[in-house]
Structure formats: C-alpha cells, structure tokens
Amino acid sequence: MAPVRIVYLALAVWGAIHPMYYFISWFQANTWDIMAMVDAWHVNAATSGLVWDLTIAAAALTVWIISEVAVRRNWLALIAIPATFCIGVSCGLPLYLFLRSRPIQ
C-alpha cells in the first residue's frame, strides 16, 4: 500500500474516533437526546458558523463523491457519504481519499 493511502486511512480512523469521544462524552454528561446536541451546536454565533461551515463542506464532498462515482464506477467509495453525515467530514473526506486512491484493476 502506498504511504499516502496509509496516511488517508490513519486520518479517517482518527477522524472517526477523536470527534466521537467528545460526542459520547457530551451525551453521557447531558442526555442522549440528539436534538439537545443540535441545540448545543447553536449556542452562539461561533458554533453556528462552524456547524454551517461543516455542513456546506459535507454537501460539497457528497456532490464530489457522487460525480466521481458516476464516472469511475468505484461504488465502494459511496460508503464515505454516510461516514461524512454520521461521523463527520473529518472521517468522510480522508476515507473517500483512501478509497479513491486505490489502484485501478
């Protein structure tokens, strides 16, 4: 495996584990209500800006993934879309780059 693919995979794993640590810690300290977390994301203008920044980045990544999958027929790369919206861009983007950079057979 190429070194850059190892870096992408490591970043995808880190991007899945590190944010989830904070999400789970928040849920345990507060409540397991997802809407309470959404409310916390919009507690001030700075956090709302960050939420919108990541939402727009996730939408752009999704469009990119779908357009490239349509051309390259790399159907496995579609798994990066739920990873992006269920975990975050910090996991979805490096996961997609890892899947996209595999050798063509």
Report the portion of residues in β strands. Answer: under 5%
One letter per element, helices H and strands E, the order comes to HHHHH
Tertiary shape:
elongated
**Assembly annotation:** single chain
- How many structural domains in the coordinates? 1
Total helix count? 5
Mean pLDDT: 94
Q: Compute the CA-based radius of gyration.
A: 16 Å
Distance between the termini: 14 Å
Structural class based on helices, strands and sheet pairing: mainly alpha
What this model shows, in words?
The protein is built from five helices and no strands. With 105 residues, the chain is mainly alpha-helical. The chain has one domain. Helix 1 (3-29) packs antiparallel against helix 5 and helix 3 runs parallel beside helix 5 (89-100). The longest helix has 28 residues, at 45-72.
